């Protein structure tokens, strides 16, 4: 086969790969946007809106995987961010509603992307706690903090090379800092609340 025919075949294949890449990028962007909306719905306690959006995310993820699996050597990395965001939305919803966390296999997400997404849940739980503090709702703050600490403890226990876990160690370190700040803020608001009760009782007497 001469070079002209060889390059003609390769060009046709590269054109197909490039077209698939454009589809993947569009799907990935949509999944990321939808995950952001789903997470906002959780914080707003709009769980029907969350369920509707999570179904759209699941369908988009299935489409994404079908194209990625055609050429995983080219497209494998494009799953990373949308899968992390997907897991973040699923796990945040489960923790806040005191449900079991989704298993990696049931969501068809890679193990590493699952862990990276779970690490990001710590930040969203901190946001959830701060929202509750601002609204004056102090119930279950320490229970949510315990969930944050539990996630951190399990992430910290993973001792694998960076080539496997990617930026998980950095995200774990960030989670530790967020937990420490959140613990201090919860302690402060509880102390302030107790002081207010004491002052109120003292005035009555």
Name the CATH class of the largest domain: Mainly Alpha
Helix and strand pattern: HHHHHHHHH
Number of strands: 0
Shape: elongated
Radius of gyration: 22 Å
Report on the architecture of this protein.
This protein has 205 residues and is mainly α. It has 2 domains: 1-97, Methane Monooxygenase Hydroxylase, Chain G, domain 1 (Up-down Bundle); 110-205, Methane Monooxygenase Hydroxylase, Chain G, domain 1, CATH 1.20.58.2140. 82% of the residues lie in helices and 0% in strands. It is built from 9 helices and no strands. It has helices at residues 3-43, 47-68, 72-75, 80-96, 104-107, 111-134, 141-156, 162-165, 168-204. Helix 1 packs antiparallel against helix 2 and helix 1 runs parallel beside helix 4 (80-96). It is elongated, with a radius of gyration of 22 Å. The termini are far apart. The model has no long low-confidence stretch (mean pLDDT 93).
Condensed summary:
The chain has 9 helices and no strands. By secondary structure, the chain is mostly helical.
């Amino acid at each position: 086969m001469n070079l002209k025919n060889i390059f003609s075949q390769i060009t046709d294949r590269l054109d197909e790969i490039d077209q698939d890449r454009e589809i993947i990028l569009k799907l990935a962007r949509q999944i990321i946007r939808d995950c952001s909306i789903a997470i906002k719905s959780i914080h707003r306690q709009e769980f029907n809106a969350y369920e509707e959006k999570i179904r759209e995310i699941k369908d988009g993820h299935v489409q994404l995987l079908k194209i990625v699996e055609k050429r995983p050597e080219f497209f494998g990395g494009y799953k990373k961010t949308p899968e992390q965001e997907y897991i973040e939305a699923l796990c945040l919803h489960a923790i806040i509603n005191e449900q079991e966390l989704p298993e990696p296999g049931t969501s068809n997400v890679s193990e590493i992307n699952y862990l990276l997404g779970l690490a990001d849940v710590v930040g969203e739980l901190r946001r959830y706690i701060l929202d509750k503090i601002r609204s004056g709702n102090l119930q279950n703050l320490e229970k949510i903090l315990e969930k944050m600490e539990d996630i951190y403890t399990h992430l910290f226990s993973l001792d694998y090379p960076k080539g496997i876990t990617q930026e998980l160690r950095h995200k774990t370190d960030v989670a530790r800092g967020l937990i420490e700040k959140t613990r201090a803020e919860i302690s402060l608001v509880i102390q302030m609340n107790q002081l207010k009760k004491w002052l109120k009782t003292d005035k009555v007497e």
